[in-house]
Amino acid sequence: MSPAMKRMHRRLIASMALMLVTVLVRARWGGPDASQSTRLLLSLLVILPFAWMCLLYGRFLRECDELERAMELSILAWTGGIVFASLPLIMMALNLGLVAWDGPRVVYVVSWLATATMLVVRTVLRRRYA
Question: Which UniProt keywords apply (predicted)?
């Protein structure tokens, strides 16, 4: 693991902890009995740690070497392409009634799909270039 990747992992600890806290706060105080404005505010609060993680990733891309940057951008391109290509399949499954998912479950499925795809693509590219 490169020094830039190690630094990024250390920096991500605080932002991921903040993400966990915001999700737990949203789950605890943003239930159906909360006012609509409270639920909206708590839902939007999750954007802050996510934006922080994106900024840290951009900083990592600036700090890493050329090969690692090329690999990371390839990982992002492949992951984005696979996830966007699978969205019509998910929408078709929802429209045909093959799955009965509510909105949050669709977000969870797409998030896990993106994470799993990124891990697989990262593993393949690391083995290819290592």
Answer: Membrane, Transmembrane, Transmembrane helix
